[in-house]
């Protein structure tokens, strides 16, 4: 191996995606598979498309271009409002984009005209989480203008909850989204193909509700990647929690006291965590740090504890000496996975052979 890496088990990814496609399908809800945490990795995209996701969603145009260049064949959705400076790229690589700003819609229509394309739009509605979204009272005017723009088609509406303020998707806000869809259709005499109810945080609501209303799509990233829902980070039944593993290499392992000596002040990253004197332990250093990922999001193997992390050193307590050159595997949470996939120091290995 060369340095730190993320191991991706595509068999487990396929199994997670297929289970969620089946589960949501029972309620008439399709899955848009979200690829941003793996930067649009083409092998990941192909795997979830084969497992039945109907669209691929990503918040970054660079990732969608990467999938397109690799020949990934699926409908693509840009999940974040397009930057005005990127509209030309957006209409070329994305079939659909999620929008909230008339200024952006006008720029998109113009760019689509220049590229001789028609671009589909999902308008995002604000339902309380206070991230992106048009207020319900303003939606009619935006729809009215959109329908006059020659190169744009209104494909549907959507909302995003939980990500910024932790607002929980429930029967109240989901019913409101359904009502809004019906109102828009009645007012403008159109049909909305897509009513996208939210992200992995909607899975609790979906499991509990007796009426999904008009919601016919969810955009799932974390649930497919890590097999859990993001509101309480509970495992989802039947899904693999270990499709992704972060592997780091040991660079030092020594018997050391638990208590530092000398006068202590702040560490490289703020106040030191106080340590109680527990005598000597096996202290093992893995070459992973904050420049690679968010170390707080790593779950070490049983019997091993994370004691501290700086830019490049992950300090562990291990049950024994671990020789330099040996590796230790961790389970990443969403933040740690995002960091590791984005760090130039961490490589990616697809379908590693696993020890039995
Ligand atoms: C990232 C993102 C998602 C996916 O969220 P998960 O919690 O990973 O399922 C869905 N919708 C939008 C708008 C996003 O930005």
Structural key phrases:
356 residues; alpha/beta; eight-stranded parallel β-sheet; 29% helix; binds pyridoxal-5'-phosphate
Q: How would you explain this protein's 3D organization?
A:
The protein has 356 residues and is an alpha/beta fold. The chain has helices spanning 10-25, 42-50, 61-69, 87-93, 102-114, 136-146, 171-188, 203-208, 222-226, 334-342; strands at 5-8, 30-34, 55-58, 75-78, 96-99, 119-124, 152-158, 194-196, 217-220, 244-257, 280-286, 298-299, 305-309, 314-318, 327-332, 347-350. The strands form two sheets. Strands 1, 10, 11, 12, 13, 14, 15 and 16 form an eight-stranded mixed sheet that branches. Strands 8-7-6-5-4-3-2-9 form an eight-stranded parallel sheet. Helix 6 links the parallel strand 6 (119-124) and strand 7. Helix 1 packs across helix 2 (42-50). The protein is elongated and about 75 Å long. The protein binds pyridoxal-5'-phosphate. Residues 34, 36, 59, 79, 160, 199-201, 219-223, 230 line the site of pyridoxal-5'-phosphate (PLP).
Short description:
This protein has helices at 10-25, 42-50, 61-69, 87-93, 102-114, 136-146, 171-188, 203-208, 222-226, 334-342, and strands spanning 5-8, 30-34, 55-58, 75-78, 96-99, 119-124, 152-158, 194-196, 217-220, 244-257, 280-286, 298-299, 305-309, 314-318, 327-332, 347-350.
Write the layout of secondary structure elements.
Elements: E1 5-8, H1 10-25, E2 30-34, H2 42-50, E3 55-58, H3 61-69, E4 75-78, H4 87-93, E5 96-99, H5 102-114, E6 119-124, H6 136-146, E7 152-158, H7 171-188, E8 194-196, H8 203-208, E9 217-220, H9 222-226, E10 244-257, E11 280-286, E12 298-299, E13 305-309, E14 314-318, E15 327-332, H10 334-342, E16 347-350
Parallel strand pairs: 1-16, 2-3, 2-9, 3-4, 4-5, 5-6, 6-7, 7-8
Antiparallel strand pairs: 1-10, 10-11, 10-15, 11-14, 12-15, 13-14
Pyridoxal-5'-phosphate binds at residues 34, 36, 59, 79, 160, 199-201, 219-223, 230.
């Amino acid at each position: 191996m060369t340095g730190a890496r993320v191991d991706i088990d595509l068999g487990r990814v396929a199994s997670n995606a297929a289970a969620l496609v089946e589960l949501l399908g029972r309620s008439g809800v399709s899955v848009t598979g979200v690829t941003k945490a793996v930067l649009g990795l083409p092998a990941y995209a192909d795997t979830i498309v084969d497992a039945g996701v109907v669209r691929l969603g990503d918040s970054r145009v660079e990732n969608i271009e990467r999938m397109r260049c690799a020949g990934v064949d699926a409908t693509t959705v840009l999940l974040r409002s397009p930057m005005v400076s990127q509209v030309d790229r957006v209409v070329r690589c994305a079939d659909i984009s999620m929008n909230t700003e008339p200024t952006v819609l006008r720029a998109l229509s113009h760019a689509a005209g220049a590229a001789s394309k028609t671009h589909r739009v999902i308008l995002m509605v604000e339902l309380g989480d206070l991230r992106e979204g048009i207020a319900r009272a303003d939606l009619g005017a935006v729809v009215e203008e959109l329908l006059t723009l020659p190169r744009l088609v209104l494909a549907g509406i959507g909302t995003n909850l939980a990500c910024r303020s932790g607002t929980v998707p429930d029967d109240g806000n989901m019913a409101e989204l359904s009502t809004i869809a019906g109102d828009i259709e009645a007012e403008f005499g159109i049909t909305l193909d897509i009513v996208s109810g939210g992200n992995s945080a909607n899975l609790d609501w979906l499991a509990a509700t007796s009426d999904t209303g008009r919601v016919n799509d969810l955009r799932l990233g974390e649930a497919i990647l890590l097999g859990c829902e993001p509101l309480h980070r509970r495992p989802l039944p039947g899904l693999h929690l270990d499709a992704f593993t972060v592997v780091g290499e040991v660079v030092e392992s020594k018997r050391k006291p638990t208590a530092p000596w000398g006068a202590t002040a702040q560490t490289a990253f703020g106040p030191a965590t106080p340590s109680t004197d527990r005598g000597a332990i096996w202290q093992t250093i893995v070459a992973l740090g904050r420049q690679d990922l968010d170390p707080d999001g790593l779950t070490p193997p049983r019997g091993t504890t994370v004691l501290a992390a700086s830019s490049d050193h992950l300090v562990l307590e291990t049950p024994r000496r671990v020789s330099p050159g040996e590796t230790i595997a961790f389970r990443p949470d969403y933040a740690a996975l995002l960091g590791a996939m984005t760090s130039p120091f961490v490589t990616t290995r697809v379908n590693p052979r696993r020890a039995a």
